[in-house]
Design brief:
Helices cover 79% and strands 0% of the residues. By secondary structure, it is mostly helical.
């Protein structure tokens, strides 16, 4: 009962606390998206249910973490970096799994999925190293993280994943292209947040941008958006 009370409690927010506001809105938006995806599972052909389930898991995991991060921020006025990276280590690889799931119809192999998962983990672990552990060398760890990110971008835009999407054609190709844009443009928000929160040659961003606001907006747009693209693909495929 105490756990439920704590989970549902709402911390008091100042009217100008934009970080706390985006934490609150992000947690509610992603929880609502999770309910939507889970309740829609039985409306699709069986081959798309796993993709919709993964979409719901991504937003649900993020929502739970955002409840904790919101309370951490309200109590300490500090960025909940540890919780954020735990969230990303669970959800970003699942977003990579989505590429494999929609490309299975074109013969995608698990090696593609594991390659994308591995690259995403490298991207996140090195990002954490630079943001938390080795802040004085943040530029170096950010560079490694960026390289892993651009390899993912290459794989989905120009590599094996693109060829599989073209072979599938139709709604799968359209969904793949949209997800690629999310990775290229939507995920590019995260390096901005990284640079806003770490020292380096880019220090000028520290006074202009708020790391947590950037991350919160990016998370909500990317995770919910990913799921809606999959949902639309499932709808189009089921109507045929």
């Amino acid at each position: 009962m105490v756990l439920l009370t704590n989970f549902l409690s709402v911390a008091k927010l100042a009217t100008n606390d934009y970080v706390g506001f985006t934490f609150f809105v992000g947690s509610m938006a992603m929880m609502a998206a999770s309910v939507f995806f889970f309740l829609s599972l039985n409306t699709f052909d069986k081959k798309w249910r796993t993709s919709i389930l993964v979409s719901g898991l991504i937003t649900f995991i993020a929502a739970v973490h955002y409840f904790y991060m919101r309370d951490y921020w309200a109590s300490n006025a500090e960025s909940p970096t540890f919780f954020r990276y735990v969230d990303w280590l669970l959800t970003v690889p699942l977003m990579c799994v989505e590429f494999f799931l929609i490309l299975k119809v074109a013969g995608a192999k698990k090696s593609l999925m594991w390659r994308l998962i591995f690259l995403s983990v490298v991207m996140l672990v090195t990002g954490y190293m630079g943001e938390v552990i080795f802040r004085e060398q943040a530029w170096f760890w950010g560079l490694i993280s960026g390289i892993a990110y651009f390899v993912i971008v290459y794989d989905i835009w120009l590599g094996k994943a693109k060829k599989l999407a073209e072979a599938a054609g139709g709604a799968v190709l359209s969904a793949h292209k949209t997800l690629c844009w999310f990775v290229l443009v939507g995920w590019a928000i995260y390096p901005l947040g990284y640079m806003a929160g770490t020292p380096g040659w880019y220090d000028g961003l520290n006074g202009l941008l708020d790391m947590d606001v950037i991350y919160n907006i990016g998370d909500a747009v990317n995770k919910i958006g990913f799921g809606l693209v999959i949902y639309n693909l499932a709808i189009q495929s089921s109507e045929k």
